[in-house]
Backbone:
């Protein structure tokens, strides 16, 4: 499923909702657009919450902690993300024009809140030196089952270089996933494939990816594409790996040759 939010409205912009909008994603996801002085209180007695600053400058308050954070660009700067369990109140106060993404899901497990700093983020360049560089991109992982096994969520970011592919080679996994997109220029665009379907993705758009469908992405030349990737673990089946599509697995072979060097 593809949808374009367009220009974000002031306040909360819903992407998914566990009760009413794409409930098969098993997540509440939305983006706050805030102006200086705006104040939002996040408090859920049954759901864990991740608060990701996409751009701007905000103050976060939780459990007696106060932290000012800022981010100029999702393309050039690693993320700040606050992760709290059910029952913990988070207050977000905007110090200027800001965008904040919030991801939630049910989780009865109690754990210590953690503010992930840019230094905590695992960032790698994937696709270097293979397939003539056509799938080179930056993959950032904020938290997953490896560093937050108590969580039912995964959240990370990808920067897909202009004219390149990402989420490649094609792969799938059992768990549902959501991609939320931005482009370095508002007229930028790319292509998202989900199973047999293809969609033109644009600034402030998203796709929902049911488990078991592959989802390769492509970016138009001249435009850099960002997407926040968000996965919901299944009960007794957490996301830990990508399952490559069998017919494309040869691309992972050492020294795989492609045309015209084949």
Residues:
């Amino acid at each position: 499923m593809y949808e374009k939010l367009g220009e974000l409205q002031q306040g909360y912009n819903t992407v998914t909702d566990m009760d009413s909008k794409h409930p098969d994603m098993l997540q509440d996801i939305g983006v706050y657009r805030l102006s200086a002085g705006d104040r939002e209180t996040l408090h859920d007695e049954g759901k864990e919450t991740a608060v990701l600053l996409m751009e701007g400058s905000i103050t976060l308050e939780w459990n007696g902690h106060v932290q000012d954070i800022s981010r100029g660009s999702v393309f050039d700067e690693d993320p700040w993300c606050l992760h709290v369990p059910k029952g913990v109140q988070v207050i977000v106060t905007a110090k200027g024009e800001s965008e904040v993404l919030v991801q939630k899901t049910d989780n009865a497990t109690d754990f210590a809140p953690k503010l992930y700093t840019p230094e905590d983020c695992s960032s790698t360049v994937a696709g270097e030196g293979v397939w003539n560089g056509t799938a080179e991109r930056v993959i950032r992982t904020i938290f997953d089952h490896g560093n937050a096994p108590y969580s039912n969520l995964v959240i990370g970011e990808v920067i897909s270089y202009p004219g390149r592919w990402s989420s490649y080679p094609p792969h799938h996994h059992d768990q549902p996933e959501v991609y939320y997109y931005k482009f370095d220029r508002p007229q930028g665009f790319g292509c998202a494939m989900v199973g047999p379907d293809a969609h033109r993705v644009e600034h402030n758009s998203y796709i929902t990816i049911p488990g078991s469908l592959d989802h390769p992405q492509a970016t138009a030349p001249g435009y850099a594409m960002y997407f926040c990737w968000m996965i919901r673990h299944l009960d007794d089946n957490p996301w830990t790996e990508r399952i490559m599509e069998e017919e494309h697995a040869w691309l992972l072979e050492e020294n795989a040759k492609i045309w015209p060097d084949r």
